[in-house]
């Protein structure tokens, strides 16, 4: 009869170690690695991003790959160049990809359906409260000119302003109109909330579109990370000019270069001076 293994013998048998979970690539981690340094860039040294971030990423990768085999030579012959920073350029380009995506996401307007729903609710409350206010004005309880000012004007932005103004009116004359209208405090607070919210997402006719503070912050961080990349990529280009001369635009293209159209306007590129050797 075959003897069954005891629990003790089972517990002593070797076990296959569980695989260590891999740390997946993350654009957000790349962003976190550089954002603090980018925020420290003086404002006068910030350059606004106007290039395609996908082109930037591809061109950075190509430039780094071209220069990578020559790092030891560069360290020896150009000791003042930040050669060790070249390995982080691709990560910095990834940080720019993330920062750009965030700036685009946060700058997107509120969905039209959401605006229409809130505007419809505000307009229903506005008309009822405004009619009641006009009655109060006719009998002299509230100033007629104030109610007329709220009634004047057209457009969605004006309607949003009216919501805030009506809440202020009902609040300012609370004592005089108490018990003389059908609106609850919750409804008065609601029309103020709707008005304030819609004023932030509706652009007045003829006015420039605005962005939220979160979107403005994201765009500032994006431009700062781009400026940091632009500065460090300039060093890579100097190394490329030293290594490849006239072939630099194929080996280490400018950030916005497209295939077959490598030369893009950038700052003049001085070649780094080679170390001087004493004459024999």
Sum up the structure in keywords:
280 residues; mainly alpha; 12 helices; disordered C terminus
Structure description:
The protein is an all-alpha fold and 280 residues long. Helix content is 60%, strand content 0%. The longest helix is centred in the last third of the chain and has 32 residues, at 213-244.
In brief:
Helices cover 60% and strands 0% of the residues. With 280 residues, it is mostly helical.
Any chance you could write out the topology, listing elements then pairs?
Blueprint: H1 7-11, H2 27-39, H3 53-67, H4 71-77, H5 89-107, H6 112-138, H7 144-151, H8 156-172, H9 174-177, H10 185-201, H11 213-244, H12 248-251
Helix pairs in contact: 2-5, 2-11, 3-5, 3-11, 5-11, 6-7, 6-8, 6-10, 8-10
- Estimate the mean pLDDT confidence: 84
Low-confidence stretches: 7-12, 261-280
Approximately what portion of the residues adopt beta-strand conformation?
under 5%
Main beta-sheet strand count, sense and barrel state:
none
Structural category: mainly alpha
Please tally the helical runs, counting DSSP H or I stretches of 4 or more residues.
Answer: 12
What radius of gyration results from the CA coordinates?
32 Å
Alpha-carbon distance between the two ends: 93 Å
In N-to-C order, the SSE pattern is HHHHHHHHHHHH
Helical proportion?
A: 55-70%
Give the overall shape, derived from the CA principal axes. rod-shaped
Number of strands: 0
